[in-house]
Amino acid sequence: MKLAQGIQYLHNHDIVHRDIKPENILIDAEKGLGKPVITDFGFAKVIPNGKKCNSICGTKGYIAPEIY
């Protein structure tokens, strides 16, 4: 749930991560809450609402099939 909220926050601010995978999700174990933290924004891009991104990037095996 919290991970989805983090991705929603990015999308609400016109940011597309473009490389969501287990290695880029860390668990913040402080106080035993286990909150997910999204990391590695190397492929991230700001895409204004209504625009499209035409580049293909990400990690093979985690790229959405419709991107191929």
Can you describe this structure?
With 68 residues, the chain is α+β, with helices and mostly antiparallel strands. It has one helix spanning 2-12; strands spanning 15-16, 25-28, 35-38, 45-46. It has a two-stranded antiparallel ribbon with strand order 1-4.
Task: Give the topology.
Layout: H1 2-12, E1 15-16, E2 25-28, E3 35-38, E4 45-46
Taking the sheet with the most strands, its summary is: 2 strands, antiparallel
Helix share of residues?
A: 10-25%
**Structural class given helices, strands, pairing?**
alpha+beta
How many DSSP E strands?
4
Mean pLDDT: 89
Task: Please report the distance between the alpha carbons of the first and last residues.
Answer: 27 Å
Question: What is the 3D form?
Answer: globular
- Per DSSP, the total helix count is 1
Key words describing this protein structure:
single chain, 68 residues, alpha+beta, two-stranded antiparallel sheet, 4 strands
Please summarize what this structure is:
With 68 residues, the protein is of the alpha+beta class. It contains 1 helix and 4 strands, in the order αββββ.
